[in-house]
Structure formats: C-alpha cells, structure tokens
Design goal:
Blueprint: E1 4-20, E2 23-37, E3 40-46, H1 56-61, H2 67-71, H3 76-82, H4 87-104, H5 108-112, E4 119-120, E5 123-125, H6 131-140, E6 146-150, H7 156-166, E7 171-175, H8 182-194, E8 197-201, E9 220-223, H9 233-237, E10 242-245, H10 247-250, H11 253-265, E11 269-272, H12 279-289, E12 294-295, E13 313-314, E14 317-318
Parallel strand pairs: 5-6, 6-7, 7-8, 8-9, 9-10, 10-11, 11-12
Antiparallel strand pairs: 1-2, 2-3, 4-14, 13-14
C-alpha cells in the first residue's frame, strides 16, 4: 500500500509559566507528523528552534513541497538533503524511524542494536526574580536528584547560593541561555566551583563566545545555542567541553546519532536536551540519552497533561519508553 502523510499543530498548556532569559512560555505548540502505511502509523513531534524564529506554524509551512516525495517513499538519507536542520525535518525524520520499526516488527533498540539503560533527567527550575523564590522551587523538587537552573544576569551567584542551601543533596547544572558576558562568566564560574556546580550551559551569546577556549575556568562549559548540528561541531568543540544535542536543532534522530559519534571522536562530553513538548518529542531523544552524561528530558513534567503511554518519571529516572508511544514494533511491545 502507498504511504500517506499528514501533519497538524497541537497546543499543550504548561502547569505554570516557564521563564528563561528573554523568553517566557505559557504553552508549547507542537508540529505532529504522521506517516502511515499498511495500517501502521509512524509519528514525530517538533517544537522548532525558538531563537532561530522557528514556530510550529513556520515549520508546518516547510512541509508542503515535500509531501508528494514522502508519499512516494523518500528515505531518511534523502530527507537530510531536502530540508535543513530544524523542527520540520525532526518531525518527519522521527516519524520515519517510528514507521520503520512498525513495518519491520522491531523496536528502535533492535534497529540500532542498543541495549537501553535507565537514565535520570534533570528537573528544570525556571527563572524567578529573587533567590528566595528559586530556592523555594528547588526545595519543592525534592524528588529530583538532578536540577537544571535557569539564570540571567540578575543575582546569579546569590540565586545559586540559595538553591545550594535549599538542596545540598542535588547535582546542579546551570543554563544561562546566552545571557552573560565574559567577565560575569568568570565571576560566576569561581562561585560555581565552591557551590559544587557541575556544568554551565551556554553562558555567552551564540556568535559571541570567541573568548572561550583559551581560558582555564574551574567549571565545565556546555554548548547549546553554539552547536546546532553536525556542521557546527568542530568550532564548538574548540570552545566547549560538552555538547548539548537537541533533535529540533539537528533536524531529527538521524543527524543526532551522527553528531554523537563525531562529538565522541573529538573528546566532547555529551548532554541531550529538549525544546519542551510531550513524551512523543522526548522518546527519540531517549535514544540519544543512552550516550549522554547529562540528560534533560523533563518537558512532559512541565505540562498540565501528557499523551497516552507517556514517559514515566520515577524520582527523575526514566526506565524505558513505551513502544505504543514511539519506536515500538507492530506488536506494540515496550
């Protein structure tokens, strides 16, 4: 039977407003792609890269010209050359992987020859105005052993100190979302060493981080906005010790897997992240998590509700993904 392609946009409200440097969300809008054949439906979800001005609507608009070719059997390799990295390609690529699993009667783990392991995700503490407010949120997340703290240039050291006092037990990483300059980074990095902070993610603006690489800061630095996809890895690896891989940035699981391999060869440590979204967006990223030291797949925990067969978090730990959600065989096995 021929392939059938469809796509639509969904809105998922958040439990509460989520704030980072220069942005705030009350909901996440998702592009959902479905590719069906022989009674099986492969699905993929993407939010897009917001700081590149991608939205669910804009990536939906990229799909039109590709539909006939997808329905004619376009391969994942062909897709890589037909669309640039970004949300549109991510949604299609992940739907292709999901459909292949079902048609072949194998799970994603069978296809990739991976024995999955449980991973523990960070829980993200969104930006608040005062150190006390952020400490309160960190204390309330007592079941999460790993915390990711969103900071800007307003009292970052004071906020981290309050959070550490509230959660002396937690592994803590920081995400500045491009919000600092180099002198502030040096100041915060010294404090991070004393506060047992494991990593600072994207402290400087994308394209404004040339001062990194020759420094000797006492904390690991991670590239997020400064490494979108494989084409930016070599430059980022000269400045950062860790690469944060997100499927919306790479344009899907296919390039994300290639980025994992290339980053390891360069000696980079790895993290997997998300652009919020439901468990359908997190499931293929869980594949990348198998290769990562730090895992940030808490998107579903920020939503008021999730999809059926969604990811289960046990004190932050993800044991597996349900094959009925994504990446399972035609038998629907986990």
């Amino acid at each position: 039977m021929p392939l059938k392609f469809s796509a639509h946009i969904e809105s998922w409200p958040l439990r509460q407003a989520f704030k980072i440097t220069n942005a705030v969300w009350h909901e996440t809008k998702a592009l959902v792609v479905e590719i069906s054949q022989d009674g099986h439906v492969g699905r993929g979800e993407a939010q897009g890269v917001y700081y590149l001005d991608e939205t669910a609507d804009s990536i939906y608009a990229q799909l039109g010209d590709l539909v006939p070719d997808i329905e004619s059997g376009m391969s994942r390799d062909e897709l890589q050359s037909r669309l640039p990295p970004g949300g549109a390609r991510n949604a299609i690529d992940c739907a292709m992987w999901d459909l292949e699993c079902q048609l072949r009667g194998e799970s994603i783990w069978d296809l990739l020859e991976i024995e999955p392991r449980p991973v523990t995700s960070v829980f993200t503490i969104g930006l608040e105005e005062t150190p006390g407010a952020m400490a309160t949120k960190a204390a309330a997340a007592s079941e999460s052993p790993f915390l990711k703290i969103k900071l800007d240039n307003n009292q970052p050291i004071e906020k981290l100190s309050a959070i550490r006092a509230a959660r002396n037990d937690a592994v803590i990483i920081v995400d500045a979302n491009q919000g600092w300059d180099y002198p502030l980074l040096c100041e915060v990095a010294e404090a991070c060493s004393e506060l047992r902070i494991d990593m600072i993610e994207q402290p400087l603006p994308r394209g404004g981080d040339s001062e990194l690489g020759s420094d000797n800061l006492p904390v690991l630095l991670g590239a997020d906005e400064s490494c979108l996809h494989l084409g930016e890895l070599e430059n980022a690896a000269q400045r950062y010790g860790l690469i944060n891989i997100k499927l919306d940035k790479t344009g899907g699981l296919t390039e994300a897997l290639a980025l994992v391999s290339a980053a390891k060869k360069l000696g980079c440590r790895l993290m997997v992240g998300n652009m919020m979204g439901t468990s359908l967006a997190m499931a293929p990223a869980f594949v990348i998590a198998q290769h990562c030291e730090f895992v940030d797949l808490d998107g579903p925990l920020l939503l008021r509700h999730d999809r059926p067969h969604g990811i289960e978090f046990n004190e932050g730990t993800i044991e597996s993904i349900d094959g009925r959600l994504w990446g399972g065989s035609k038998r629907g096995a986990k």
